[in-house]
């Protein structure tokens, strides 16, 4: 976030207004730059619930209404640093999504994220609403899906599976949070096409 007028870097961006009538404001010189403050759609949930599979099929159902992105493409190098709850990874994604929004299309980000990992970042100011849809599953179904994955994905580590089951339970318990509620979609017995269609409908209805 570099001011186009004075060149100052803003570590905590400031945006006034909403939608297409918003402005990115420099706290140093007061420069106001038109800035689209669009919504973000976060398709989240534990590993094994179908996020990546849905992500691959979602684009054609949304057409030019939204940009569909797989979060793991940036899960590399220094961005995997767990410091500040993977703060560098989360902030990088929020800044990238904000830049993509300037093309006039909102983004659907597919990947595991807990709402606090976005909501407490300074970059949250760059967006309008952030909508969360969490894919969940019954524990025995989730465990079976993770255990069936290829060895290179390292899901035969019982601790990793236990962590994911705990996240599955956390999502279900916190879905109605007043700060950032999550809509739940159980994929335990749903076919992939059914889940994809439901996710597309969720996005299009909110648009």
What structural class do the secondary elements suggest?
alpha/beta
Kindly state the percentage of residues in helix: 25-40%
Mean pLDDT equals 94
Low-confidence blocks of residues: none
Number of strands: 8
Straight-line distance between termini? 27 Å
Strand order of the largest sheet: 5-6-4-7-8
Please state roughly what percent of the residues sit in beta strands, choosing from under 5%, 5-15%, 15-25%, 25-35%, 35-45% or over 45%: 15-25%
Q: How many alpha or pi helices?
A: 6
Radius of gyration: 18 Å
Largest sheet: 5 strands, parallel
Choose one word for the global shape.
Answer: globular
The run of helices and strands is EEEEHEHEHEHHEH
From the structure above, extract its key features:
5-stranded parallel sheet, 37% helix, alpha/beta, 207 residues, 3-stranded antiparallel sheet
Produce the secondary structure layout:
Layout: E1 14-16, E2 19-25, E3 32-37, E4 40-44, H1 51-62, E5 67-70, H2 83-101, E6 107-110, H3 115-119, E7 130-136, H4 139-147, H5 158-174, E8 182-186, H6 192-206
Parallel strand pairs: 4-6, 4-7, 5-6, 7-8
Antiparallel strand pairs: 1-2, 2-3
Helix pairs in contact: 1-6
Could you please describe the fold and organization of this structure?
It is built from 6 helices and 8 strands. It has helices at residues 51-62, 83-101, 115-119, 139-147, 158-174, 192-206, and strands at residues 14-16, 19-25, 32-37, 40-44, 67-70, 107-110, 130-136, 182-186. β1 and β2 form a beta hairpin. α1 packs across α6 (192-206). The longest helix has 19 residues, at 83-101. The relative contact order is 0.18.
């Amino acid at each position: 976030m570099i001011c186009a007028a004075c060149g100052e870097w803003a570590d905590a961006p400031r945006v006034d207004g909403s939608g297409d009538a918003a402005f990115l404001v420099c706290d140093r010189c007061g420069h106001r730059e038109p800035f689209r403050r669009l919504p973000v759609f976060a398709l989240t949930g534990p590993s094994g619930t179908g996020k990546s599979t849905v992500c691959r099929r979602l684009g054609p159902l949304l057409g030019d209404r939204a940009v569909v992105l797989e979060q793991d493409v940036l899960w590399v190098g220094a961005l995997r640093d767990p410091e500040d709850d993977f703060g560098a990874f989360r902030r990088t994604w929020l800044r990238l999504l904000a830049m993509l929004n300037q093309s006039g299309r909102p983004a659907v980000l597919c990947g595991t994220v807990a709402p606090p990992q976005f909501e407490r970042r300074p970059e949250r100011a760059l967006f309008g609403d952030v909508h969360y849809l969490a894919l969940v599953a019954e524990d025995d179904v989730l465990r079976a899906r993770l255990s069936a994955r290829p060895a290179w994905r390292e899901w035969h580590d019982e601790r990793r599976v236990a962590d994911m089951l705990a996240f599955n339970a956390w999502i279900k318990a916190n879905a109605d949070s007043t700060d950032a509620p999550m809509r739940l979609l159980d994929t335990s017995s749903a076919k992939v096409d059914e889940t994809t269609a439901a996710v597309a409908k969720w996005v299009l209805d909110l648009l």
